[in-house]
Amino acid sequence: MKFVLLTQCYPPEIGGAQVLLGSLARELDRQGHDVKVVTALPNYPTAKIFKDYQGRLVVREEIEGIPVFRTWIYATQSARLFPRLANYFSFCLTSLLSFRWIGKPDVIFVDSPPLFLCLTALLLARFKGATWVMNVSDLWPDAVVDSGLVKSGLLLNMAGKLEKFLYRAADFVSSVTEGICKILLEDKGIPQSKILFLPIGVDTSLFQPRPADETLLEKWNLKEKSVFTYAGRVGHSQGLSLVLKAADRLRSRNDIAFVLLGDGPVKEELRAESVELGLTNVLFVDPVPLSEMPRWWSITRGALVTLKDQPVHLSARPSKSLPAMASGVPVIFSGLGEMARIISDAKAGMVVAPEQVEPLVQGIIRLADDAPLARELGENGRRHCEQEFGWRKIVRSWLSEMSHDSKAQGACETASSIGLAK
Fold first, then answer.
1. Equal CATH topology for 2-201+390-417 and 214-388
2. CA distances in angstroms from 337 to 12, 354, 419, listed in the order given
3. How far is CA 237 from the centre of its chain?
4. What is the pTM of this model?
5. Would you list the DSSP string of 356-396?
6. Chain centroid offset of residue 392 CA
7. CATH topology of domain 2-201+390-417
8. pLDDT at 313
9. What is the distance, to the nearest Å, from the Cα of residue 156 to the centroid of all Cα atoms in its chain?
10. Is 160 left (phi over 0), alpha (psi -120 to 50) or beta?
11. Is the peptide bond before 113 cis (omega within 30 degrees of 0)?
12. Each residue of 298-317: pLDDT tens digit?
């Protein structure tokens, strides 16, 4: 099959969506499919176009042998309405420049949010006669309402109507979590035959247990310390002030250190809060390429994954949990919902109540003081990733689901002929 992946985010940017889309493209390519990617000039999470791409409208390149067509975007980190809409709509429009370049694909796969990009996918799919798959990484506008940033109004009402229209128009609606699939079926009224499941996986060959990286330990003065690492987007939803509160409570423990590795809109606020608290046990580290993350997991006693106590997070699967698990690092998950269940069932770490500092502190102390327990939980997580979250298994299952529906039979003949359909 010929696939086009349409997405606002893609490597070399880092983040959960980028991991999913980059891994999907690579795995489709490995399984013999023709894959092209249409995406924006890289700018996440700094909201600045990366240096090598500045001043350009269109960039054509290859990443790991996969053709990538990039177009200009208005880059911003602002949470204000109009700059955010300019960010979304600028790429929706410039991505249409890929019309001739994409040829005649069988499947156009679009990642949402942003919801508006699905209009571009619909337009391309109709002109090209392609099946189009709307992948829901986060429910919009539900997530916007739950965040409290927007409570009501004309634009929110219009977004709700747009969402319903797109769900009806899509040939398939794919999602990254079981919880979102359930909402799509029960609350959004999407037929079961249109729903696909594409969970985020992990590269178990890149992320695996390895000896502690002595260079990192020495560079960051972390020798003889139990390191607890948060790695990912430093945003509002993560509620990372909780980690600083835990660090404050544990400031007398000279053997415990915290690493906040990543970038995002609240990083400087957290840094200022850390200074105000006088914390010397917290390190703020800039984002590193995905290939460098195994080094950090090698020196980590426990991975920290935090989410605010919001309804939308009940169906979330923070992708940052899986690389730690695959690396043999236990996860302390401060939250509820789907990822809490996965970690608990796999016995791959500890699940504590969201936005409560005392349970988090107790979990950190327990892992710091009990190396055999940390090792056991880490081994459980590694084993679970090998069994359930390898990309080959995930993509094969996703293609098989697609091939079962009559709308996709023509596009999926190739998949069936090489044994991808059950």
1. yes
2. 30, 11, 35
3. 13
4. 0.84
5. -HHHHHHHHHHHHH-HHHHHHHHHHHHHHHHHH--HHHHHH
6. 18
7. Rossmann fold (3.40.50)
8. 82
9. 24
10. alpha
11. yes
12. 999 999 999 999 887 888 88
